[in-house]
Amino acid sequence: MKVQFTDRARSDLRAIVTYSKRSFGHQQAVKYVTQLREQVRSLSDAPGMGKKRDELAPDLRSFPFQSHVLYYLIQDKRFIVIRVLHKLMEPSLHIRE
User: Fold this and answer.
1) Which of 73, 77, 79, 84 is in Cβ range 3.0-4.6 Å of 12 for a Cys bridge?
2) pLDDT band at residue 69 under the 50/70/90 scheme
3) Structural domain tally of the chain?
4) What is the average pLDDT value for the chain, to the nearest integer?
5) What range defines the domain where residue 68 resides?
6) Does any domain span residue 96?
7) Residue 80 located in a structural domain
């Protein structure tokens, strides 16, 4: 399945890298984002593993990854990452239908 990141999801990843570099160093930041992207690829092979989040948006799913939560949709054989939010963030404030 083809994987895509929305502009907001790419912005989330950039913010994660910036924060991680500042807090944990360049090497750890690269490692974390690499592992996150590997998790996305694994999820794209079994997208049903994620929790249904219809209360946020139709057909939306979420899956935890370490300190973050991946929010994604499956549309037209594409795995679309909508947002990558810190696990303590309230998703309803950051995800719009």
Assistant:
1) 84
2) very high
3) 1
4) 94
5) 2-87
6) no
7) yes
Measured over the CA atoms of residue 77, residue 61, residue 94 and residue 33, the dihedral's sign is: negative
Sign of CA dihedral 20, 90, 6, 49: positive
And the tokens for 60? 């939306």
Tens digit of pLDDT for each residue in 32-52? 999 999 999 999 999 999 999
- 85, with CB counted inside 10 A (0-12, 13-18, 19+), is buried
Q: Which of 13, 10, 29 is nearest to 21 (CA)?
A: 29
Q: Which residues are CB-contacts of 7 (< 8 A; sequence separation ≥ 6)?
A: none
- As a whole number of angstroms, the distance between CA 85 and CA 90 comes to 9
